[in-house]
Amino acid sequence: MTKTDDRVLALDLGTSSARALVLSAADAAPIPGALARHKISPTYGHDGSATLDLHEYVEGLLGCLDELQQNGQLDEIGAIVLSSQWHSIVALDNKGGALTPVITWADTRTVDLDLGTAFDEPAFHTRTGAWLHRLYWTRRIPWLLASESPAAFAGLPDLVLERLTGERVTSVSIASGTGTLDLATGAYDDEALDIAGVKPDRLPSIVPTGWTGTLRAEYARRWPGLVGVPVHPPTGDGAASNVGTGGYDIGTAAVTVGTSAAVRVVHPIDDAPELPWELWRYRVDDQRAVTGMAFSAAGNLHAWLTGLLQLESDEPTGVEIGASHAIAIPFMAGTRPPATVPGGSGVYFGLSFDDTAADLLAASLQGASLEIDRGLRQLDALFGRKLDVVLGGGGIDASEWWRRCLTATFDRPTTVCAEPEVGARGAAAIALGLSPSPGGEHLTPVPADAERVAGLRDRYETLRALAVQASAI
Fold first, then answer.
1. DSSP string, 264-301
2. Which of 396, 383, 134, 130 lies closest to 261, judged by CA?
3. Mean pLDDT of the chain
4. Phi-psi category of 56—alpha, beta or left, where left has phi over 0 and alpha has psi -120 to 50?
5. Domain membership flag for residue 190
6. Do the beta carbons of residue 335 and residue 317 sit within 8 Å?
7. Could you give the C-alpha distances from 73 to 10, 192, 437, 446, in angstroms and in order?
8. Which of 233, 266, 298 is the last residue of a domain?
9. Domain end marker among 181, 212, 233
10. Which has the higher per-residue pLDDT, 258 or 441?
11. pLDDT tens for residues 49-66?
12. pLDDT for res 16
């Protein structure tokens, strides 16, 4: 059992960076100055590929630990935890070597599957929380089997864990993001594996939440303070971010804005409400699930526009919330399932010569807010209440205007998480049984802002429907 005066080493395996940071074991608060970051640059191709170099990624992460070691930050570590991007996959040879780069959630390469009329996808979705979509291993593995001769498959967090401990295992949380898990049993789903064309022995073994490993002997000299320290199974970044933001009960929705965005609710897996077709459901740990909706355009949209428009400020200065005449449908990176809008489908409606760069940024952030609001309203209906909302993530931390815009769009008070490293914080909280509070400012919607946004909603939904239709042409 980790002592409260120990510290926690958290490894956060993101799409745009790999990070190692040290947290307090008492409350999962970051230790000032104990953060090392390795920038990740995904490779995108015209064929729809979106990949990461596995060797470069892992070596960069290990370099983060070296940096913390050099700064004397790896002393008194009582636990090592991991938060990781969901959905990644790597094809492996019979010696465990990588045959492919890390294929990320953004990769659109796939094969079509004809399962006939006997396949009941609604029942499959209810059982696994996923759809038969290219995001998941049910479609990834058949595509890889058609182009490679793999002996096994694993995700990025599984291979990082293997590099650290020598054991290729996965958690129920990471496995749920593959779309091959039976959510109720916590084991691989037989039908999902049949669709993928593999047996369980070709995938990482699923270990319980309480499992721990230890670092391999080769790291004893490199990081002597970590010898014998328990390494906990990784948590999917969405689940970790919810808990780290402070959204870990059935009455609270967490809205996190990072590279992408999501709105989710953590709840017990037992007696969970029936899953609507539009929402996904994954696992947090052995006892809890997380239900929500994800969006492909968020912090990436903000970063792209501020660079493209060469704005002096990251904020749409001078533009009132809900006042932009332009309507932006933020499908630049397509949509997540079950919708099938491809990347490159972003649209602006109603542009005029008097629109400024700030107007375009405001319209895009407003469009992203309205997309997230669509998910929040579905979660309200699912759980039978108007949910409390906490906001967290790097995008939330970076933009005061966006925080106020989200609050006005939701038309309810919100609480901001004061800690931007919500994934690492949540992974530590899950491993140690903590319940961190948001700790940030409380926002209330400005009535005039909320009224303007409400006036946009019907027009937005009409134009969004047109954008979806146009994307299919």
1. EEEEESTTPPPPPTT-EEEESSSSEEEEEEEES-SHHH
2. 396
3. 95
4. alpha
5. yes
6. no
7. 12, 43, 25, 44
8. 233
9. 233
10. 441
11. 999 999 999 999 999 999
12. 86
pLDDT of residue 4: 43
Closest of 210, 217, 218 to residue 285, by C-alpha: 210
User: Is residue 13 within 8 Å of 84, Cβ to Cβ?
Assistant: yes
Count of domains for the chain: 2
- CB-CB contact of 456 with 322 (8 Å): yes
- Type of residue numbered 183: L
Verify that 212 and 258 share a domain, yes or no. no
Is the torsion defined by CA of 67, 32, 253, 397 positive or negative?
negative
Note whether 385 and 293 are same-domain residues. Answer: yes
Residue 16, amino acid: S
CATH code for the domain of 186: 3.30.420.40
Q: Is the pLDDT of residue 340 over 90?
A: no
Question: Based on the domain organization, do 369 and 399 belong to the same domain?
Answer: yes
Rg of the chain, C-alpha, whole Å = 22
For the cut 90, the answer to whether the pLDDT of residue 8 exceeds it is yes
260 touches 86 (CB < 8 A): no
